[in-house]
Amino acid sequence: MADPWQGAMDHAVAVARKAGEIIREALQNDMKIMCKSSSVDLVTKTDQQVEQFIFDSVREKFPTHSFIGEESVAAGQPCTLTDNPTWIIDPVDGTTNFVHGFPFVAVSIGFAVKKELEFGVVYSSLEDKMYTGRRGKGAYCNGLPLQVSDQTDISQCIINSEMGSNRDPEVVDKIFSTMRKILCIPVHGMRGVGTAAVNMCLVASGAVEAYFEIGIHCWDMAAGAVIVTEAGGVVMDVDGGPFDLMSRRVLAANNKTIATRIVKEIDAFPADRDDAPQQEKQ
Ligand code: IPD
Q1: Are residues 137 and 163 in the same domain?
Q2: What family does the database annotate (predicted)?
């Protein structure tokens, strides 16, 4: 049977590639940098311009589909996942990298139908790497199949995570205590490239064994979640429970053995759900 979402996925790849061109061009020009939830939660005109470009292009081709976009939500649009086909977009994942010229900046497009993720596209625009994953059909980078690492010994692993943009000292303490415990298992190393989407693609590629973070958003992880699972990995909550796209928590790993070992070391902290009513968000 023909894939009902092939046209949408092809469009996502085309639009992500074009969005990447806009990002590369913008790096040559002066940037207008603004702040969102805090002085370290950055946004630029390029984030807004790229999201508008993706939105317009998808709306023209798929007028009945829904959208959740990082910058639209920041501008007050609801962040609600319904059964309708929904594009979940981070136009510039790694905005802080983009601002500083740190060379990992991705366009992330996830696509869900009836609340189930169908495909994910992550274009790491400065590396020119196009990662794709289609439910049940595998994951690829620039057309070559992706496969997670087969490592089951945590002491032989690299684990990725991020410091995020919450500077509440209690939260920062928990982030560092978790990293300290994981480092001291010991593991081969810890890394983080400043974009959740690329961190997840690195798990899918087998370059690192796992990635976890609390405080990220659905648009950071929707596409990566499909790519990791289609490369043979697992995606779950940081407490080992089922993955919840709106929870702002993710643990992606090459297998359950590594994931459950990491779960034991994570000191969780609260993060408002993405789909919490606006007035309940802190
Ligand atoms: C951020 C990046 C970063 C992660 C943050 C995200 P943004 O996305 O993915 O790696 O640590 O939690 O918010 O803001 O650059 O799109």
Answers
A1: no
A2: Belongs to the inositol monophosphatase superfamily.
